[in-house]
Design brief:
By secondary structure, the chain is an all-beta fold. The protein has one domain: Rieske [2Fe-2S] iron-sulphur domain (Rieske Iron-sulfur Protein, 3-layer Sandwich), CATH 2.102.10. The chain is built from no helices and 8 strands. The strands form 3 sheets. Strands 1-2-6 form a 3-stranded antiparallel beta sheet, with no helix packed on it. A 3-stranded antiparallel beta sheet has the order 3-4-5, with no helix packed on it. β4 and β5 form a beta hairpin. The protein starts with a strand and ends with a strand. The model has no long low-confidence stretch (mean pLDDT about 95).
C-alpha cells in the first residue's frame, strides 16, 4: 500500500501495478493519476480505475482519515 498526496488530497492505494509486478511508488504522478513506470498504465487514485492499457484490473483503494497530523488507513479494502 502507498499513501499519495495528489493536489493536496491524500489517497491510499495498492502499491503494485495490477498488470505486472512494478512498484507504482516509483511511477509518475500527474494530477490525481499515477502512471506505472514499467508499461505506462495509468490509474485514478480516487477510484483505482484503470485509465489505459495494458492493465485491465483496478488498484485496490483503502479508506483514509486524517486527524491533525495523524493519518489512519483502514487496511481492509
Amino acid at each position: 500500500m502507498m499513501i499519495v498526496n495528489a493536489e493536496g488530497s491524500l489517497y491510499a492505494v495498492s502499491r503494485i501495478c495490477t498488470h505486472e509486478t512494478a512498484d507504482l511508488s516509483t511511477g509518475f504522478l500527474i494530477g490525481s493519476e499515477v502512471t506505472c513506470p514499467l508499461h505506462l498504465s495509468r490509474f485514478d487514485l480516487k477510484t483505482g480505475a484503470v485509465q489505459n492499457p495494458p492493465a485491465t484490473n483496478p488498484l485496490t483503494t483503502y479508506m483514509l482519515k486524517t486527524e491533525g497530523t495523524a493519518v489512519y488507513v483502514r487496511l481492509e479494502p
